[in-house]
Specification:
Strands 1-2 form a two-stranded antiparallel sheet. It is an all-alpha fold and 717 residues long. It has helices at residues 12-49, 58-61, 76-84, 92-95, 104-131, 134-155, 157-174, 187-216, 226-248, 260-264, 269-283, 289-294, 296-299, 301-318, 322-330, 337-355, 358-375, 380-389, 401-409, 415-439, 452-484, 493-510, 515-521, 531-566, 579-596, 599-616, 621-636, 643-652, 654-663, 669-672, 674-716, and strands at 6-7, 10-11. Helix content is 74%, strand content 1%. It is built from 31 helices and two strands. Strand 1 (6-7) and strand 2 (10-11) form a beta hairpin. It starts with 5 loop residues before the first strand and ends with a helix.
């Protein structure tokens, strides 16, 4: 029973976090859509109020004109005479030209040109005034209003992000939702967890304070937006105080005891990163080091705001039946667990690409993927592997946000080139998964086989309830296309996807899913039955994930700074002498970076340090970034951190993790650790093909294409 105080059906935490973050998310949507809409309003204004016959364009009408101060009826003869009779100036500078003889014709020519320009200005003024109507004033009020909104948003993206991040980080800390290797359970766990939080946040508060007071203010240069620095200092101070209070007041329901070694695994990853970064920077008395790298969070505020929108879209997806209804199409075929998992991974690649990062889809749909694979007869360990990998294969497909960031930081590549290669990488990794899964499958004797005609009929029937969602998606996409002239691509997807999901949630709640079905599909956190509840619950979940992921990403950039500051990257020779050696070294280096850093921070680090080394060693830039992305995904699935595995544990729950371990306790090594081994084998094999096969393709692709064309020509004349 929930005894927390409520006001207007909202808890204190919802008034403090959910409503403000929802408002900021909606503001971000309005800013993004307003930017598109403003362009359309300008074009509409030109069509409605522009007048080609008088050469009046809409941009001249956006504000009331000011009458020119000059005189269009000026008497040129009198003005020339006045110039000639003007007294000599006492200014010493003017005295230098005192002996110069004034040319009356030159003066007249100058005055006539000035008069002609004045007449033209007055003519334009009169034409503009004549076109200002009440209809124009009403239209331009709307147009300039939208301009003000997206101008405000563009100028204050960093502040919007920071306020959202601060609210989310406080909420995440209060709810003990930070990402760690295992959640705290015992009194000792909570003591270690909160002590580490106190130390980490105190470090962050100190370095932020030192950077502002001892570096920025001491420089004597006016600080741009000092409020940003105040928020950083205040945020980390508040987080440290919250954790300090919880050190002395641990949860009363936590059991006593616990192993100290196991308690260390409860320390949030960002706290590990903060303390390890501080140990390096502070040892060199570089007190502002962490704060400087934290500032990169704001430099890429647009990327992180888009990430927040993607997370929100993912959480809204959880409140719908979309994934369940899609699986209803597949179930009649009674696929083996291995084949079903492969189909799910193929389908999951699309939302993964559109949500911008692998972890978001794991958070949004990982629990459903796990449940469906298990219900199809799959081993729990295999189902966990599938859930962890469900967000791994689509990061190379359009319109993944990570590739947009790579193209923005590296002028040697374009998004089209990266997405083109990404399709090939996706086909390789997905095929490898199917092959390895079939090799290790257990005996399927006695499994019921689907009858083709029956399965086809049931699948076709299952398409009917899915079709409205497809129609809604198409209506929104084409609405943006025809009304706002905006295509669904990597640049507009962060704005369009939440809008699509909001309409889908509205439709889904109008259909009124029976409560029993909602609980059956999602017993841990049933899909909310009303629209208001669904949006509120999705926003609450979004806040926790924003706080956990962005905090991790921010400190990951700091770890990247430690690596950059240490000179490890620079120790790699600019010319390794052999491209195969260079490929091998850089491959393992990128896997290591993927193990310890989040993707966005890692891309920033690699762009600045490793990419130039790769280019100087003759590695094709597009090929290099495909290696990086494949290596990162291997890193996210590999111990000791394995971020996607941690997110899977978070959404599936500790009870299922324990049940999965108990289920295979009597089996061989592979089956006991399948959730770790299968993803690593698949992604490492795919990485080897991408690294070495990709280089052969770059080197000999044109020769192979010519040989193939010649062979086809000889065969078909």
């Amino acid at each position: 029973m929930n005894n927390k105080p409520v006001f207007l059906n909202r808890s204190f935490s919802e008034w403090f976090s959910s409503l403000p973050v929802l408002a900021l998310l909606l503001l971000t949507l309005v800013i993004g859509t307003g930017e598109m809409l403003h362009g359309q309003l300008l074009r509409m204004g030109e069509r409605m109020f522009g007048d080609p016959t008088t050469n009046v364009q809409y941009f001249m009408l956006r504000a009331d004109p000011v009458r020119p101060a000059c005189d269009p009826n000026k008497d040129i003869d009198a003005a020339v005479q006045a110039k000639l009779n003007a007294p000599v100036s006492d200014d010493p500078l003017d005295m230098l030209f005192a002996d110069a003889v004034q040319d009356p014709e030159a003066i007249r020519s100058s005055l006539e040109a000035a008069k002609a320009l004045c007449v033209e200005k007055n003519d334009i003024y009169e034409r503009v005034v004549n076109h200002i109507t009440p209809e124009l004033k009403a239209f331009r009020a709307v147009e300039t209003g939208f301009f003000g909104i997206f101008k405000f948003g563009t100028e204050n993206r960093s502040l919007i992000l920071l306020v959202m991040f601060a609210i989310a980080a406080i909420t995440t800390t209060l709810s003990v939702h930070h990402i760690n290797l295992r959640p705290p359970k015992t009194q000792r766990d909570f003591f270690v967890y909160n002590t580490a939080m106190v130390i980490a946040n105190s470090i962050l508060a100190f370095t932020s304070w030192y950077y502002y007071n001892k570096v920025l203010l001491a420089s004597g240069i006016p600080v741009d937006k000092p409020l940003v620095n105040y928020i950083f200092i205040g945020l980390f101070s508040v987080l440290a105080i919250i954790s300090a209070v919880r050190v002395v007041r641990p949860p009363k329901d936590a059991p006593a005891g616990g192993s100290f070694g196991m308690s260390l695994l409860t320390i949030p990853l960002f706290a590990f990163m903060a303390m390890s970064s501080a140990s390096v920077f502070f040892a060199e008395q570089h007190w502002a080091g962490i704060a400087i790298y934290l500032g990169q969070l704001l430099e890429f505020s647009g990327i992180f705001l888009n990430l927040a929108l993607y997370i929100w879209a993912g959480m809204l997806l959880k409140q719908t039946r979309v994934v369940t209804l899609f699986l209803d199409i597949v179930r009649p075929w009674k696929l083996s667990p291995e084949a079903l998992t492969w189909v799910i991974l193929l389908a999951a690649a699309i939302p993964t690409a559109y949500t911008g990062a692998s972890g978001i889809f794991v958070i949004a749909a990982g629990a459903i993927v796990y449940k469906e694979v298990y219900l199809a007869g799959g081993r729990r360990q295999m189902a966990l592997a599938a859930a962890a990998m469900s967000g791994s294969m689509g990061v190379v497909l359009r319109p993944c946000l990570l590739i947009v960031l790579i193209a923005a930081l590296n002028k040697q590549v374009t998004t089209n080139e990266l997405y083109g290669w990404g399709v090939g990488v996706f086909m390789i990794t997905s095929t490898l998964f199917l092959l390895f899964a079939m090799l290790v499958k257990e005996d399927s004797t006695g499994r019921e086989r689907a009858v083709f005609s029956t399965a086809l009929r049931e699948s076709a029937r299952a398409l009917v309830p899915v079709s409205p969602y497809i129609v809604i998606t198409l209506l929104v996409v084409y609405g943006y296309k025809y009304l706002l002239d905006a295509q669904l691509d990597e640049f507009t997807a962060p704005v369009m996807l939440p809008v699509i999901m909001l309409f889908i949630v509205i439709f889904d709640k109008i259909r009124r899913e029976p409560k029993a079905q909602a609980v059956q599909v999602n017993p841990e956190a049933e899909r909310r039955l009303s629209l208001e509840q669904a949006v509120r619950f999705a926003t609450n979940e979004t806040i926790g994930h924003i706080g956990a992921l962005i905090m991790l990403m921010a400190l990951s950039v700091s770890v990247g700074g430690v690596i950059e500051h240490s000179g490890i990257m620079e120790s790699v020779p600019a010319d390794l002498g052999n491209i195969w050696l260079a490929l091998t070294i850089l491959m393992f280096m990128m896997v290591f970076v993927g193990m310890v850093m989040d993707p966005f921070g890692a891309v920033i680090l690699v762009s600045a340090t490793v990419a130039p080394i790769a280019y100087s060693n003759g590695i094709n830039p597009v090929h290099f970034w495909m290696i990086v992305l494949a290596a990162f995904e291997l890193g996210y699935l590999s111990p000791p951190v394995a971020l996607n595995q941690l997110l899977t544990r978070m959404v599936v729950g500790e009870e299922e993790m324990d049940a999965a371990d108990a289920e295979v306790r009597h089996k061989s090594f592979y089956y006991r650790y399948e959730r770790w081994i299968l993803p690593v084998i698949v992604m490492f094999s795919g990485l080897l093909i991408v690294v070495y096969g990709g280089h052969l393709l770059v080197e000999h692709g044109q020769e192979w294409q010519a040989s193939l064309n010649a062979m086809l020509q000889s065969l078909f004349g």
